Every structure is written in structure tokens, then in C-alpha cells.
Amino acid sequence: MSSYEFDSRNISFRKVRTSVQKVVRTVLLWFIGTFSLAVCYYFVLAFFISTDTEKRLIRENRVYERTYEEMERKQQLISEVTSDLQQRDNAIYEQIFHTSAPAVDPVGESDFRTQGRIAELKGAASRVEDNFTAVFHALAGSAALPPMTIPVDNLTYAQIGASVGQKVNPFYKVETRHDGLDIIAAQGDLVRCAADGTVSDVTRSGKGLGNVVEIDHGNGYVTRYGHLGDIYVSKGQRVRRGARIAAVGISGKSFAPHLHYEVLRDGVTQDPVNYFFASLSPQDYANVAFMSSSTGQTLD
Asked: Which of 15, 49, 60, 123 has a Cα-to-Cα distance from 167 of 20 to 30 A?
């Protein structure tokens, strides 16, 4: 719409001509005013009026705050209970094995005093592997292999007790010769044959090693399984590697349920741990070797 102004000199109306600068200034003023008003509306809506989504998020945050405080209290309680259980576990291990309870990784967490022993064990493990490589070459073409299979399922290093050597007897509290490896297991757990062989002897007794199964694997290798519960094989029976032969028990003179496992070569007692390397990862084998050598008291 055009605008007019009165010309008093000529006593007439004349049309007002709008300059480009005035138009631009007017547009800029309108733009700035509109933008400022929009910003004001945004801050009012953002800080004083909450949407349904914002209200829901606020409620959730409050719930999380309360939950976090509760979780902190529970975490503290769990830490205290875990610490107490560790102390009790240490006390039990100290009483039974004359050593502290195993850590998550006994080799990785050992202090400087045991590093020399660990290096020695790793060297021994390497020599054992080299020796058995030579054994496999020597046995090429023969069906008889050493007893390389672990006689219990899902073995962990925490189940390893004392191995061969002079160990403290749990009943007399004096050092005596221990000719096998103590494997801690629940009563009734399956005991499996370490290699193909023939059952050479089955003994049921309430003394010494209690119920015992002895298996001849050929090439001078014999394995012996003691303190058994139920026995599933008979003398003269042919058994395959991994076959179930008995159940873990507490027969004979046993401090707690476990498997007493022996390996003999030509009548000479061997350390059974040396035959586990093929069934374990290098780290697990190192942990098992460490536990077996550092445990000072047997279970029988």
C-alpha cells in the first residue's frame, strides 16, 4: 500500500518514495526482533517448561541416583564379605596345606622371592616338553603312549595339592615321603583313565590309599588311583584313554575327598604334573606346577 504526505507549500499530497536503505533497515529490524523473540521463547521453554520426555528423563535420573547409592552400599558389603572369605580361605589352606590360598594367577602375582622358583619351574616344563617330544619319536609305530590325560574333568590349578616329595603328613604333622599328586575334587566326581591300558589291580581297603585301581599302559608305564569311592572296572579289563574307571572318594587314610594319583615308569615314581602339559595351556600348566611344588602338606 502506498503512503502519502501533505505538502504545505504546494497545498497538495505527494507520494512518499521509500529508499532501498530504509527497506533494508526495516527488514533487518524485523529479523532481529523476530530472532530475539524466538531466543526468548526458547529459553523460557527450556528453563521453565519441561516436555514429557524431559520430565521422564528427570524421573529416571532421580531413580538412578537412589539406585547408585544402594549399589555402592551393596558393593561395599560384597567387598567386606569377600575379604572375610579370603581370610577364612587362607586360614583353611594354612591349616591343611601350610600355604596361603591360591590367587587368581599365582604365577603372575608372585612376589620377587618366588620369581627364581617360577623360572626354574618354567625351565623344567620346557625340558619335560622336549623329553616327551623325544618319547613320541621313540614310540613312533607303537600303540602304547605315556599317560598324558588328566584323570579328572575340567581341572583348575586351585584343585592341585601336594605332589611327589617330602611333604607334611596331615595326621602326624611330620614330613614323610609322598609318592603321588593330590587332586582336590568333590566326592563322586568321575575319575578317568589317563591312557589306554589294562587294569592290573583293584584293591578295596579301609587303610592306606583305600580303594585303589592300578592300570598298566605298556612300555613300563603304570598309573595308580587312590582313595576312590565306587569302582567301575575289574582286574584284567581293557580300558581306553578317558574312560571312567571310578569315582572320587575318601576311602582309606584320607584327610578330605580327593584323588591320589601316581605315575610310575619301570617301577620308578614320576611326578604326575610332568605329564599334564599336553592337556593344559602353558599358563595353566605353569600355575599347576607352581601349586604342586609349593604345597607343603598332603591330604593323605
From this structure: 123
Tens-digit pLDDT profile for residues 148-162: 899 999 998 889 999
Distance CA 71, CA 69 (A): 5
pTM: 0.60
Residues 32 and 164 in one domain: no
Residues 145 and 220 in one domain: yes
Q: Does residue 239 form part of some domain?
A: yes
Residue 166 placed within a domain: yes
Report residue 223: phi and psi, to 5°: -115, 145
Same structural domain, 27 and 166: no
Number of domains in the chain: 2
- Is residue 8 a part of any domain in this protein? yes
Q: Residue 21: which domain range?
A: 4-48
